[in-house]
Amino acid sequence: MKQKYNTLRLLLGDQLNLQHSWFRKSDPGVLYVMMEVATETDYVWHHIQKACAFFAAMENFASTLQDEGHDIRYIKLDDPDNEQSFPDNCNTLIQKYSITRFEYQLPDEYRVDEVLKTYCSKLKISSQVYDTEHFYTTRDELANFFTGKKGFLMESFYREMRKKHQLLMAGDQPLGGKWNFDEDNRSKLPKNHQPYPPLLFDNNVTPQYERLIAAKVRTIGEIQPTHFYWPLNRAQAFELLNYFCKYCLPLFGTFQDAMHTQEWSVYHSRLSFAMNTKMLSPKEVVDAAVLTWQQNQKDIALNQLEGFIRQIIGWREYMRGIYWLKMPEFESMNYLDHQRKLPGWYWTGKTKMNCLKHSIGQSLNHAYAHHIQRLMITGNFALLAGINPDEVDFWYLGIYIDAIQWVEITNTRGMSQFADGGIIGSKPYTGSANYIHKQSNYCEKCVYNRNTKTEADSCPFNSLYWDFHDRHREKLQHNHRLSMVYRLWDKMPATEREAVLLRANFCLENLETL
Ligand code: FAD
Ligand code: DLZ
Ligand code: SF4
Fold it and tell me: Quick check: 327 and 407 in contact, CB under 8 A?
């Protein structure tokens, strides 16, 4: 073949950043490649909506690049010459076009980063890696920030981000006199309060769905391929962002922790897929929210905006920094030595516990649950029950539309399962029915009694909560944030403690039928 291209540029499924400097002008010597490959479809059991969303968004991205005058080869899962891995497909193209240079953008996932680093080290042609131009921070910025400091407190990183990017600041002071308005952000949905319905698109992902089915890719969850509602291109991502700013931002903070059987996203933005694929940048999201607030200050209180901004410039960037600082060790951490198997009903939602039934059910239906459902329902239960973090990670990495390891594992193994021994959270996030009832209507129609601990129909969370702290006393009792928990436990009459542990033991031995 006559040489047409000198450079091959690989784009991954989560690198759909149209604003990247690569695309400022087209270069006839550059061939871009995107590919649907078994190494990506098979590393976990993806939710079918997640797999379809990635494929469809990738295809849309490729056709936009084509329209803008770039040459791109899009390799589909069932293409006969698809070798089913990034290196093998790149090799084929390099040979076919006698390419002399290979370029790629920094992968966000350790696994893929290693594959591509190894690939480049063996290549006979030159290679170069570029930044994705997506995040506020570089990969090692967090590590540099915490060098010489004790611990990795998110709040101090967040304040630094606020100052550095001059967000919600009045000079060097936080706007409104406080960095954090979390105490205003814990309301339950009042009876008869109906949030705006989630904005749903009407996309058709039948071709992507059929390719996945034909290839027998193992997936989970439900889908309606002809009415697919996640945003699949930049225009839809912006539409979702504008909808959020107009209808959800005004109450985002207030109901950030609220859960309800009839509402699957409450006032949450559902922008994580659009951001994690890089169709939208975090700066675009933050700027739109700030502008909306500036133009509507009489309708949008500062706590609503601050709560939202913190998730993006705080938690999201922080998790990425921790990921690159602590991988690959992070992947095998199991501080509490949890070894139980994940109950089978995590894959079906078939449990009598109403909070778990709803949170898992909506995850299977929509590939989505909001933060508090992930942390305080499914995560909390897995932690209290002592489930092996490998199994917990496998579930979280597959089931959510936004699940990419850099942000999944830090949240799951770190924040939710305390398997990192406290790098991310200063104490385990645990709660009993008391907390769940405070934030939701789940307990109202549950077969279990949220008010008791030791009866045959007592809420399992209530005994498992104490059992967890008792079981891990040696590792946790010196944590000053848990001193109250241990004081209360020790004050309980011995007979009651025994009954609680007995009930917990029953729950642990009968996890599958709870
Ligand atoms: P909103 O509530 O509207 O928040 C806005 C944005 O802030 C999100 O889109 C997200 O980009 C960011 N954000 C919020 N919380 C976090 C957080 N803790 N860490 C990082 N970014 C955050 N998020 C993922 O993107 N992918 C995951 O795989 C993932 N797994 C999680 C697993 C567990 C156990 C927990 C507790 C949380 C996980 N999160 C994950 C974080 C968070 O739950 C989701 O980002 C959020 O629910 C996405 O919905 P949303 O876009 O409506 O978020
Ligand atoms: C999630 C996903 C799936 C299901 N399939 C692909 C794929 O076939 N090709 C691809 O480039 N990306 C896919 N992705 C997203 C990847 O998991 C993500 O792009 C990589 O892990 C890099 O972080
Ligand atoms: Fe969940 Fe317990 Fe409430 Fe039932 S009573 S919904 S199991 S917290």
Answer: no
Residues of the chain with pLDDT under 70: 1-3
- Distance CA(448)–CA(439), nearest Å, equals 17
Query: What is the rounded CA–CA span in Å between residue 393 and residue 413?
Result: 7
**In this structure, which ligand is nearest to the CA of 230?**
1
CA atoms in the 13 A half-sphere facing the CB of 239: 13
Test site for ligand 1: of 249, 263, 323, 371, most ligand atoms within 8 A of the Cβ: 371
What is the DSSP pairing of strand 101-105 with strand 46-47?
A: unpaired
Residue 246 CA, chain-centre distance (Å), reads 24
Q: Is the CB of 366 under 6 A from ligand 1?
A: no
pLDDT digits (tens, 9 = 90+) for 64-110: 999 999 999 999 999 999 999 999 999 999 999 999 999 999 999 99
Amino acid at position 154, single letter:
M
Residues with CB under 6 A from ligand 3: 353-355, 433, 436-437, 442-443, 446, 448, 450, 459, 461
Cα–Cα distance for residue pair 118/199, rounded to 1 Å: 42
CB 417 within 8 A of CB 338: yes
**Is the CB of 414 inside a 6 Å radius of any atom of ligand 2?**
no
- The 3-class secondary structure across 51-87, one letter per residue, is HHHHHHHHHHHHHHHHHCCCEEEEECCCCCCCCCCHH
How confident is the model over 478-514, as pLDDT tens digits?
A: 999 999 999 999 999 999 999 999 999 999 999 999 9
